[in-house]
Specification:
The complex is a heterotrimer of chains A (276), B (234) and C (253).
Chain A: H1 2-18, E1 30-34, E2 37-38, E3 42-44, E4 50-51, H2 53-65, E5 69-73, H3 79-84, E6 90-91, H4 99-104, E7 106-107, E8 116-121, H5 132-139, E9 143-147, H6 151-159, E10 165-169, H7 172-181, E11 186-190, H8 191-199, E12 206-208, E13 228-229, H9 234-249, H10 252-261, H11 271-274
Parallel strand pairs in A: 1-5, 1-6, 9-10, 9-11
Antiparallel strand pairs in A: 2-3, 3-4, 6-13, 7-13, 8-11, 8-12
Helix pairs in contact in A: 2-9
Chain B: H1 5-8, H2 17-50, H3 54-69, H4 72-93, H5 104-130, H6 133-141, H7 146-177, H8 188-199, H9 202-233
Chain C: H1 3-42, H2 47-62, H3 65-75, H4 80-84, H5 87-91, H6 94-119, H7 123-131, H8 136-166, H9 178-189, H10 192-221, H11 232-248
Classes of the chains: A alpha/beta (276), B mainly alpha (234), C mainly alpha (253).
Chain lengths: 276, 234, 253
């Protein structure tokens, strides 16, 4: 029965199939999918070339694995299905390692961990808190914006539920607009978008709040950012992890990080993977 | 913020006129293709409802009830998140194991088509009901085969009677394309949003979008009105 | 979809139903009031008033609702003087912005429905009432309005469905109503079809309940001698359709 329905429907989608199926490529090549619009993680130059922290990093990894790599840019929304269906072998691009994602897919060891920060107007009473406890007390009753599906959202859900009003945004730009308009008292996001905002002309009235949200203290936030892959690709994962161990101990990861972020976002070698 | 309004709309360089026109092009392409497919599908759905096959009729009724009762935005999310998986499932039954990707434009066209189809099928059904029974008898009496009679006598009259309704469906299609900005299709609304956010002048850009859509709708209603009056004389 | 996910989805959606209902419940009466004002203005003796009302109805029926919402929410918030004014107390709130934009839009559409209803009132009934010595106001209140409402109700029930559907746009400005929650669930759980079916069912049920209630109102407003059993109309339409299908069925040859 299922088969009949399938073949019937197949006739309908024949046209759609001709639109651009990407056939499985040569298996020796590692196909890397990335967003290409998420500075400084991955970005696209005006000439269409991919650059960024993770592009540099992945190139180093590929060198060490002695395999050729091919990068393809695709918006994040379509990446996971494309990975699952075999268009890519690995995805990179500031992807946080989370238990939910690990249920379905596999991660390499983490290679970066960027602190998340609150941001608010310079005139806000939230400024200049010495530690998280003080900031938390000041946040009570406020309205806070976060981008949906991020670690920031998870943090707010866990630490501030019931004490603040949470607004969810689709993208960082809309979050910025409402923060600038004063619709929200503070917003939580990764440090890099805040740096970009505060350096821009529009973002002049905004300030990044201390303290950094510490991933060691709130370990449910995950262990940072990793490469996302299918579960059945053990060989590639092991090779990738080994290369990462190497890059971490040699200090190369740190220097790539400083090149793109201006500070060190790299994580320590994972003892389970790299050994003691 | 220092830039004047004229700078914002400069041609080329950092001006937004070019991207806005491109966005308008995408909007119109999506609305036109989606609407055309939707009207054809709507005609098929209408005949499924009018026909004697009970299952086909029930399926058609379910389709229109669903698509007319559910927010178009929800339909867009369904197609956006669901189409890839569904296509691959079907293709695998066909013996194809590769990867198929549906881009935002295709999803947009599909969304406009499916929703327009639901509404235009009702329009066509109404038009069919408005055709005098004598017309059906007449083509039978003339010895035309049913299919030929349908094609030469009934459907042309249906289109004429359906015109005002189809005009409304077209205007709905234009409006529906604005929702496609939520799936990052670079149509007019999306471009306007990006422009507003990067320049810090959302009011000007959204206001301009409002005027553009107003003009589009005004032109459309005028055009449909003209066609209607012409058809009446024909 | 396993049971755990299904329960999670169901509980998330249950919470969002109230947001959708609240949006519709505030928007519909406000839209009615605006439509009433517009209808009154369009029948006024003052030309300027008629012009303003007609422009309002035309513009807000032509501009897509999403554009109206964004102009109000993101557009107006760019002005510092506006943010400093008392208006900001309302505009600061996304729920209020959604309700305002939707009400203004629904008002324009409903004004057209009202015009249709008024146009359907037989002139003879009004003349008869005037001949009986009723004042203009009493004629309107006792004769014109009840007939017009009854005639406008079927179109208004359509308008209610449109408004209910348009509440979904509130999710674009951070109001987490049914469609917004559904979108989040689709991207989180990947159970796209299941989530869609659940949400679609919720919308359809709300629609059906609202339309049923309006049918009851329509019946109450119909004089008893004109009332038909609630299903008779449908049956007649079906039999007429069968008649026509003599022609339609011919597509099968």
């Amino acid at each position: 029965m299922q088969k009949t329905i399938r073949s019937l429907l197949s006739a309908l989608v024949l046209g759609a199939m001709l639109c651009g199926p990407a056939m499985a490529q040569d298996q020796a090549e590692v196909r890397i999918g990335t967003d290409g619009g998420y500075l400084p993680w991955t970005s696209t130059t005006p000439s269409g070339e991919l650059t960024g922290f993770e592009i540099d990093l992945a190139k180093q990894v590929c060198d060490r694995m002695k395999r050729s790599c091919r990068f393809t840019a695709q918006p994040w929304e379509g990446q996971v299905p494309a990975l699952e269906q075999g268009k890519y072998d690995i995805l990179v691009g500031g992807i946080a390692i989370t238990p939910e994602r690990e249920k379905r897919l596999a991660f390499t060891q983490s290679y970066a961990n960027l602190p998340i920060n609150f941001a608010a107007a310079k005139t806000s009473s939230l400024n200049g808190k010495a530690n998280w406890r003080e900031l938390k007390a000041a946040l009570a009753g406020k309205t806070i914006g976060v981008q949906s599906g991020t670690q920031s959202q998870k943090f707010v859900d866990n630490e501030l539920k019931g004490e603040v009003t949470v607004r969810l945004y689709d993208n960082q730009d809309s979050l910025n607009l409402d923060l600038l308009a004063g619709r929200i008292d503070a917003a939580l996001a990764g440090r890099s978008p805040w740096i970009a905002l505060t350096r821009s002309q529009q973002g002049e009235p905004i300030e990044i709040l201390s303290p950094d949200i510490d991933f060691d203290e709130f370990n449910y936030l995950g262990v940072g950012v990793g490469g996302l892959m299918r579960k059945n690709e053990e060989d590639l994962r092991k090779a990738w992890d080994a290369a990462l161990c190497d890059l971490k101990t040699s200090g190369e990861l740190k220097s790539i990080s400083e090149k793109w972020f201006g500070f060190d976002v790299s994580t320590k070698p994972d003892a389970k993977v790299c050994g003691a | 913020m220092n830039s004047t309004v004229i700078d914002l709309f400069a041609w080329g360089g950092d001006g937004w006129t070019k991207p806005l026109l491109t966005g308008l092009g995408v909007t119109m392409a999506c609305a036109c293709i989606g609407y055309a497919l939707g009207v054809l599908l709507g005609l098929a759905v209408a005949f499924a409802k009018l026909g004697q096959n009970r299952w086909l009729g029930a399926a058609a009724t379910l389709y229109t009830t669903l698509l007319r009762g559910v927010p178009p935005l929800l339909v867009i999310f369904l197609l956006f998140f669901g189409t890839n998986g569904a296509l691959m499932w079907v293709a695998r039954g066909f013996g194809y194991a590769g990867y198929i990707e549906v881009d935002a434009f295709t999803v947009g066209v599909m969304a406009v088509a499916f929703v327009s189809a639901a509404y235009s099928s009702e329009v066509f059904r109404g038009a069919h009901a408005a055709i005098p029974v004598g017309q059906f008898e007449a083509y039978t009496a003339l010895g035309l085969r049913p299919l030929a009679g349908l094609w030469t006598v009934i459907i042309p009259q249906m289109f004429r009677l359906a015109l005002p309704g189809l005009g409304n469906v077209w205007i709905m299609a234009i409006k529906e394309t604005t929702l496609l900005s939520v799936i990052s299709l670079a149509e007019l609304m999306r471009v306007v949003g990006v422009a507003g956010r990067t320049t810090g002048q959302p009011f000007i850009f959204y206001g301009m979008a409002a005027i553009i859509y107003l003009v589009l709708v005004a032109i459309s209603s005028r055009a449909f009105h003209v066609i209607e009056t012409r058809m009446r004389w024909a | 979809m396993d049971l755990e996910t299904a329960l999670h989805v169901a509980s998330e959606l249950a919470g969002a139903i109230w947001v959708t209902l609240a949006l519709a419940a505030v928007t519909l009466p406000l839209g009615l009031i605006l439509a009433g004002l517009a209808t009154w203005a369009r029948r006024s003796r003052h030309r300027a008033l008629r012009g303003v009302a007609s422009a309002y109805v035309l513009a807000f029926r032509s501009i897509p609702l999403l554009v109206q919402i964004f102009v109000l929410y993101y557009g107006l918030s760019q002005f510092a003087w506006l943010r400093a004014s008392p208006v900001w107390i309302v505009l600061k709130d996304p729920f209020a912005c959604a309700v305002i934009a939707m009400s203004v839009c629904a008002g324009a559409y409903t004004a057209e429905v009202m015009r249709g209803g008024l146009a359907a009132v037989p002139q003879g009934a009004i003349e008869a009432a005037r001949a009986l010595g009723l004042s203009r106001f009493k004629t309107f209140l006792l004769v014109t309005m009840p007939i017009a409402i009854r005639r406008a109700l079927p179109a208004y029930s359509n308008e209610i469905v449109v408004t209910l559907k348009s509440t979904s746009l509130a999710c674009t400005i951070t109001v987490m109503e049914l469609t917004g929650v559904a979108k989040d669930l689709m991207s989180q759980t990947f159970a796209v079809i299941e989530v869609f079916c659940m949400v679609a069912l919720i919308y359809l049920i709300i629609n059906m309940v609202l339309i049923f209630l309006l049918r009851l109102v329509e019946r109450l407003l119909t004089p008893p001698y004109q009332r038909k059993p609630m299903l008779a109309g449908a049956r007649r339409v079906v039999s007429a359709a069968k008649w026509r299908s003599i022609g339609a069925a011919s597509q099968k040859g």
